[in-house]
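Weekly structure sync, notes
Attendees: PL (lead), two postdocs, one rotation student
Agenda item 3: pending single-chain targets
PL asked that the sequence for the first pending target be pasted directly into the notes so everyone works from the same version. It is reproduced below exactly as submitted, 230 residues in total.
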Amino acid sequence: MRIESKLCHISENKSVVQVNGWLNDRNLGSALAEGPTVEEAEDKAISRLNKRINAVTKDEASINTNNEHKSITPMKIELPNSEKTKLPKRDKVENININHEPSDWSRELTAIDAEIERLKWSRDDEINYLEKTLGYNNRNKITNYTDIVKYLSLLKNTDIQNPLKVANGYLNTLIEESDIILRDLSWDHKQGREFLQKEFNVLTRKELSETQLVSFVEKLKLIRNQNLTH
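Predicted structure, written out during the meeting:
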């Protein structure tokens, strides 16, 4: 089996690696894993892939065995009525929850690529949308399966052709909201700049990222609410 590895994310204390298994030209599957180093993440991903391949192999063997057994005519045994009444009754079938996080995210990642292509987004378009909706500035930094599924769902339910325009509109809304609160506080430009420099080490709101701008508005709201209670 040939193994191909792809580094999806790396930070100071976390690495995410995706591996694909090939047998000649046949793709045997893929797996994703994280670890403190690239080597450990790769080892975990390979281990997951091997387990998955072994499980599929066992399933295929079991199916073949069952098919062979089906060719044999089963013997029917009729129980006396007295014996039938002794059999336990099961009015309810126990439902077993088999929902769990898969080790292989390739299907979801491929679906995300298809949605990005459908929307005709550039890399910058996707980054702006992803940062606005989930707070990530790169898809490769998503290491939580729940966030991957959520991101895919968001993409499927949007027809936005220009996410940058939407993001800019959202930023303008935040700035307008901060203008209203600053007027409520009776702060002049000097007080606003001093607050920005103290809290975010910048002089203008245009220097703030979207996350910082949201935080700026929330801090102003808190100050306004405190003033109203006094």
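Discussion points:
- The chain has eight helices and three strands.
- Residues 144 and 159 are 25 Å apart (CA to CA).
Action: rotation student to compare against the earlier draft before next sync.
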